[in-house]
What does this fold into?
Amino acid sequence: MAIPAGYKSILDSLTTAVLVLRDGLRIQYLNPAAESLFETSVTRSKDAPINDILIDSEDALKTLHAAAENGQSYTRREAEFILASGLRLTVDYSVSPISLEPTELLIEIQPRDRLLRISREEDIISQQETTRILVRGMAHEIKNPLGGIRGAAQLLDRELHNEDQKEYTQVIIAEADRLRTLVDRMLGPNKAPKLAPTNIHEVLERVKTLLEAESRGRLNFRRDYDPSLPEFQGDKEQLIQAFLNIARNAMEAAFENLAEITGDEQPTITFRTRALRQFTIGHKRHRLVCRVDVIDNGPGIPPDLLQNVFYPMISGRASGTGLGLSITQSIIGQHHGLVECESEPGKTDFIIFLPLEENQ
It folds into this structure.
C-alpha cells in the first residue's frame, strides 16, 4: 500500500501509533509513534509478520485475524501487548479493515501505561498524605497520656523504698519510653532535609558497604549505574537511611530464598540507575528524573500485601515493625519523589523516582 505523501505527513505527525498490515498480517507501514512504541523501524520491519514485533499476545493476534477474515472493525481497551524485547505494554487499540482485496488493516494504538501510572501515583501520593495526617493525629493522642503515665510512674518510683517494688515502676517507665520512640518512628523524619549537592551513586555505595558488613559476605551485589547522572539537591544522610531501609528488606527477603537456590547462584541485590527525561511524578512533569531500582531475588511479596506495603505497621515478617518502608516513602516524598514496588516470585523491584532539577 502506497500512502499518498499528504496523508503520510499527517500520519507521521500523530502521537497515536499507526500500523498498516497486508495479507498474512505483514507490516506495510509504521508511523514514527509506532516505531518508537515497538522499538523498531519501518525499514527493518516492512513485510515482516506482526508477530515479529508483537509476541505471546494471543488475544491481540486473534483479534487481527478475525478482522482480516470478517472485514469488521474492533476496539479493545486496556489490552496487554508483549513486545519482542519482553516489554509489556497496556494499550487501547482499534483495528479497521481498509481493503479486502488484498486484505489491509489499519491499526491505531494508544499506550495507556503512562496514564495508568500517573493515576496510580496520584492515588499513592493522596493515600500517603491521608496516612500521614491520621498518624500525626493518632501520635498526638498517644503521646499525651504516655507522658502522664511516665510522669506518674516517676513520682511513684521516688516514693517507694522497696527495690523489688521499684522494679515495676521502672518497667512502666521503660515501656512508656519504648512506645514514645515507636510513635516518633511512625511520624518519620521530624526535620526538613538539609539540601546539598548529592551524588546518588555515593548514597548507593554507602548502603552497599553497610549491607556487606551486615551480611558478612553472604550477599552478592550487582551494580548497573548510569554514569551520566548529575548531582542533585538532597539530604545525603536521609537518603542513605531511605535506601538502607529498602535494601535491608531486600537482603532479608533474599536470604529467605536460600533453600531454593542451587548451583552457584547466591542471594543477590541489584542496584540500577537510569535517567528519565520529561517524566511525570504524580501530577508534576520534571525535565530530568533519576530512576533507581533495588532488585532482589527473594520469594516476592504476596499480592494482598503489595498494595499496602508502604503503610505504617504493615510487614510481611513476624519480626518486622512495618515502619521502614513508610519512613522511606516519607523521606523520598520530602525530596519530591516517589517509591513504587513490583513483585513476583524470584524478583522484587523497588523503584525510586527522584527529580534531578533543583528542588523548589
Summary: The chain has a mean pLDDT of 79. The radius of gyration is 27 Å.
